[in-house]
Amino acid sequence: MRFLIDFFPIALFVAAYKLADIYTATAVLMVATLVQTGIIYTIDRKLQTLQKVTLVLILVFGALTLFLQDERFIKWKPTVLYASMAIVLAAALWIWKKNFLKLLLASQLSLPDGVWARLTVAWVGYFLFMAAINAYVAAYYSTEDWVNFKLWGYIFPVVFIVGQGVYISRFLKDDPVEKS
């Protein structure tokens, strides 16, 4: 069910684009993300930092998209965001000696520092890959092709997160079962 909750804003974005235009789709994405965040809050009674950041980014950049009315901005925005996240994670890890991924997720996962470092490097690589592939599609394909890529390109984060889950599963410790 969580996958459906995560997927429906992008599905509604694509549907709105097909039925109307990119600006209507952007407005639909903004509303759908607000609804998605509300559903997640209702279920979990809290929001993770990443969910809050995602909501703010979608609302801010969505508003800019609607204000600017420029398809190039819409198509290149993910490249800039992905590259920025890669730079921040890499700079934090290698320059400031801080692991932002661990800071964000350590309350949910207990992992050795070396694993956190490898995960951060994997995220840097993932963000750079996503920035590059989005840049390629934005530069060489139509807006309609780019929207289709956003829908079918959803497989990239799914594969990455599943792979990450498989990797970290061997480092997670089971909670001891209480005996009565």
What does this structure look like?
The protein has 180 residues and is mainly alpha-helical. The protein has two domains: 1-68; 70-174, no CATH class. 80% of the residues lie in helices and 0% in strands. Helix 1 packs antiparallel against helix 2, helix 2 (22-44) runs antiparallel to helix 3 (49-68) and helix 3 (49-68) runs antiparallel to helix 4.
Notable traits:
mainly alpha, 80% helix, 180 residues, disordered C terminus
Helices and strands in order:
Layout: H1 2-19, H2 22-44, H3 49-68, H4 71-94, H5 100-105, H6 113-140, H7 143-152, H8 155-169
Structural class: mainly alpha
Number of structural units classed as domains: 2
Number of helices: 8
Oligomer: single chain
Q: Mean pLDDT score, rounded? A: 89
Overall number of strands: 0
Unreliable segments of 5+ consecutive residues: 176-180
Kindly report how far apart the N and C termini lie.
Answer: 33 Å
Q: Per DSSP, what share of the residues sits in E-state strands of 2 or more residues?
A: under 5%
* Rg: 18 Å
Based on Cα principal axes, name the global outline: globular
Helix content: over 70%
The helix/strand order is HHHHHHHH
Tell me about the largest β-sheet: none
